[in-house]
Design a protein that fits this description.
This protein has 2 domains: about 220 residues, Methane Monooxygenase Hydroxylase, Chain G, domain 1, CATH 1.20.58; about 375 residues, Up-down Bundle (Growth Hormone, Chain: A), CATH 1.20.1250. About 70% of the residues lie in helices and about 0% in strands. The protein has 28 helices and 2 strands. A two-stranded antiparallel sheet has the order 1-2. Its main location: membrane. GO terms for molecular function: transmembrane transporter activity.
Length: about 700
Amino acid sequence: MVAFGKKLKERQIEEWQGYYINYKLMKKKVKQYAQQMEVGTQDRRHVLKDFSRMLDNQIEKIVLFLLEQQGLLASRIAKLDEQLDALQQEPEISHITELREAYRTAGQDLLKLLYFVEINAIGLRKILKKFDKRFRYRFTDYYVKTRANHPYSQLQQVFKHVGIGAVVGAISRNLHELQDRQGRSYLSIYDQPVLPLQDPIIDSIKAAVDRLSNSTNFLNFLAQHALIMREEELPAPIEEQVDDSNYHFMSLFLNLANTFLYMVNTYIVVPTADDYSMSLGAAATVCGIVIGAMAVAQVFSSVYFSAWSNRSYFRPLIFSSIALFLGNLLYALAYDLQSLWVLLIGRLCCGLGSARAVNRRYISDCVPLKVRMQASAGFVSASALGMACGPALAGLLQTNFKIYKLTFNQNTLPGWVMAVAWLIYLVWLCISFREPLRETEENTPQESNQVQNDRLEKGLQQPLLITSLEKPSDEDGDPEVDDSEEAPEESRLPVTSIGSAYRLLTPSVKVQLLIYFMLKYAMEILLSESSVVTTYYFGWSTSSVATFLACLGLTVLPVNILVGSYISNMFEDRQILLVSEIIVFIGILLSFNVFIPYSVLQYVCSGLIMFVSAEVLEGVNLSLLSRVMSSRLSRGTYNGGLLSTEAGTIARVIADGTITLAGYLGRSRLLNATLLPSLLICLVSIASTCYTYNSLY
């Protein structure tokens, strides 16, 4: 794997080389500072001041060149606009075509400028991270905090492009106008090819602007929920062709169907879990254990499914379907067997069939980059739809009859319905799923014995240890990899254990995982105890509880549309993150039973505030998590998606256990007893966010 410094040099535009961030020089300075501090010739205060000054100079060089190039582009576009105005008098098709090509050329130059800014922004982030790692000092926090909002700082002009939007608007508007004018020509379609409605260069420019400014749309925002992690790569002016030979739409659809059915399976039992527990002779609050048993098993199943997906996708999905079929069958039979243990074993089997790690991995590995965002958004949409359909379906299953001593009522029908659904899915899976091709040793051409022998002889002639003088170096003699860093190959390898993954977690990542834990805990408390709480305070029926939960689930997509299309374009992710946490805190606070009597309006409004803000928080949280997490956690068994899934699943397990334990205090104290831990965890997460706020960019 090529080191970042070399990749940076390779991607530079030759005539602009003097205006890029001097990553190599700054890397040398970091190493020099470390050596000076070791021997005591420099103190930390002087190092921070000197390095800050160097960064300021580098950023100023970049920004001034950016402004100069924008001015040149603006002058070119102004001259082209004059020619466009002249065409209004004498519209000739040849002149229109020439002018369109001139605008496209200007667009290509603008695209090069956008790549220039993006490469420098990545280089700046890399060198800041390197400094923090070498000195174990949060220099990034200090630098961003002191420069972000200062009136003379140019830092934001690198991360938030300056004036480029006006140039983009001018080029796209005039190209569109020329296209319309050409369309109104009296020439035949045979004289001029049919032009597309949208020029490809404009699409490329808009994509580059979105990447640079971190602006997003609804599709992007949904895709971030899926946490399909990718490494931060340097942009290339020419898009590489993606090998999509492994892509099979029906296989992708089956993965999304698995996600949907699993979420339905998770939440279909929530409205009736308390009644089912009481019908088996247990307390209503045992519903926490019944609901949480699925999450307990998922803690373990996520790991082995993630490892299994390294070798196959089809077999894990088959196993998942069988486990869920058997689990739902046991769940339904527990009523006639009058066994709480059978009920719990059934839910555990369902949890063992959680293949969400496989679904995520399939999208990450087998879906082409050009449609991966849509697939990731589909994953999140399927989850949200399943979350809404589960309780809604439970509300429709209000009947009671027997067939051959088997009882079909509101308690058992969720199990029977899901068992049939998983059986149908299993048949569909066997017929339609196509296992992607994988590179194996058998497919790798074998080298001849002579070549292997030659390599062996050459290897025996090499020294066993390579001295520091023989380390790979660039043309100036600077080692490409210094001793303080991981070798590029090693730094790119996926981690092989939970312990290794944990050691890669920076404070920012730990805080984001804590936030994810908090929001999943709060949501699980709200959803799992809803049936018990509403029955006790308001006397709601199963249908009423199911309707309430379904309405909560249906808010997911509209809220994501609002946040993804508008709010995320107006504010930074970290700002939305902190505000969402505060609103979750307010929602939890309003849910407490302080005033008597406890009203339906208070419960519904506070629950809605908490749930919606938690949904917003989840999307932004996972977006930030994917940016601050190490690239080594972007693939392999112990990846970032698995870590976040485990954090959320453990939160659900603890929340469901809390409900059952709080039940011993009595139903009258259940609500406040379960909300108190949520409130405290939320407070801790808000404080932690404030502590790491400046590193979230």
